[in-house]
């Protein structure tokens, strides 16, 4: 019986992983509005998973969690929508001025800052006018959820829209999924010392090092390929460094998502993806690696 259950779970995980890869290819290769729309949907689902986990949607006295989002979450969804519109409309290839000469900031910078400030004001307005229905903890958790999932995931889109972004965006997934695979395999074969015994007993220091080395090697190979394709001659070492740093951030993201689940005593964030859990369970490391990969590319490439 146990072997049948494990086999079913393994099959579900494999099928789900294949579907995720297909969706990623279908969204990332064309980029633009298609990628923005897919990320928006993923972000809304991830946002609601987080708000539910962090207690923004409080349980009833009977211990049941309401199925419908509350006012804070509805405002949060509106904020996610406004944020993605701002990011899409103001990114450099959208046809607007790249820099506003009077203030020295890009249109994209202004769009992101305004949308985040307005999001906080909207949530605080719900808090004030519905007082004391919602607590300060719920407002902070709602805003945290907005930044944690939707904002950080938007850097997948921003990376794709860079020069050569159709290639460079895959470093985000090398930094997360390749790193995770290498860490797992190394940990199984050579894991001896616990990395975070209280938070994640199965993770080892050896596995962590294996993930970093594997991600750096994958980045180097990818950089070598891009040097040949693009004729740049400089990406091999740079993407190796991006892969190594990205792996460290990826592992922190994985542990951070686990820590939130431990704090709120939940096994998975959701059940949307068979064999994996929710959006937050599958994309926890991607969420962290997307911004750091974007900024490393901006700074060094």
Describe this entry's structure for a reader:
The chain contains ten helices and four strands. A two-stranded antiparallel sheet has the order 1-2. A two-stranded antiparallel sheet has the order 3-4. The chain has helices at residues 2-28, 32-53, 71-90, 107-129, 136-160, 165-168, 170-190, 205-230, 235-263, 279-300, and strands at 99-100, 105-106, 194-196, 200-204. The chain is globular. It starts with a helix and ends with a helix. With 301 residues, it is mostly helical. The model is unreliable at 5-9 and 99-104 (pLDDT under 50).
Oligomer: single chain
Largest sheet: 2 strands, antiparallel
Number of β-strand runs: 4
- In what order do the strands lie side by side in the largest sheet? 1-2
- How would you state the average pLDDT, rounded? 87
**Backbone shape:** globular
Could you spell the SSE succession in H and E letters? Answer: HHHEEHHHHEEHHH
Strand content: under 5%
Tell me the Rg in angstroms: 20 Å
N→C terminal distance: 53 Å
Helix content: over 70%
* Class derived from helix and strand content: mainly alpha
